[in-house]
Amino acid sequence: MTVRVIAYVDGGSRGNPGPAGYGVSIEDEDGRVIDELNGAIDAATSNGAEYRGLIAALEYLVANGRRDATIRSDSELLTRQMRGEYRVRQPELAALHARAGELASRLGRVRFEHVPRERNRRADALANAAMDGAAESPARPLPAANVGRGDLVVGIGIDIEEVARVEDIATRYGDRFIRRIFTEDEAAYCLRRRMPAQHLAARFSAKEAAMKALGTGRSRGVLWRDVEVVRAGGPPQLRLHGGARRRFETLGATGALLTMTHSRALAVAQVILLGR
Fold first, then answer.
1. Segment (H or E) for 156
2. What phi and psi, each to the nearest 5 degrees, are found at residue 29?
3. pTM for this structure?
4. pLDDT digits 0-9 by tens, 68-122
5. Domain boundaries, the chain
6. What helix, strand, coil percent values describe the chain, rounded to 5?
7. Domain 152-275 CATH (choose: 3.30.565.10, 3.40.140.10, 3.30.420.40, 3.90.470.20)
């Protein structure tokens, strides 16, 4: 029997555009919370943040095998656009709307409902918490340092990928694959390289390695885009969002070490999570 779930989504921006965040509350039909998601966004409009919350909810539903869902939002614009009642006129929302539509098509049944703000308080609180966190610590990579005295290894993961396999998937599925796996910054970095497949494969491998170090794999609310590889004027570092960040904190981790390498044929990555 297919169990129906309800995803309450919300998003907001302080500046419009400015530092933003989204929140998602996944609940059963009796209002019991199944899971909660939220994440900070470096800069977005309020409507963009609403869509990012919707996408996070849909990615969660797809990843967890949910096939009968109701999406509730206090954004009439988002709800009517997803129903096909309003056109998407804003260029910055077009790609987000397309991504949400592609994810929704993977569900057996999905309904979009507009609700008053007072019925969306949990998702609103999660979105505000994400924005508060962004203001205090704006989307910084995880601390990375050499292992020192007193450091404990709380997780370790390693992964190897065939560059040709990743290149084949990217060729066959194009933007669908890129947007599902990689953040916008990751995709932009890789696609401007002379041999993008090697860089995509290295980041794909780093995400797998990080999920192994977290002890979750692609489960427990940890999604591909929750693990991000960033370059901040030095070696690559990890930035965790959503379920991956929550798992990192649950493990008591305080920092991460990431190493990646690739040849024409293979990409390899290793992640070590450190704690005290």
1. strand 152-162
2. -65, -20
3. 0.54
4. 999 999 999 999 999 999 999 888 799 899 999 999 999 989 999 999 999 999 9
5. 5-136, 152-275
6. 40, 30, 25
7. 3.90.470.20
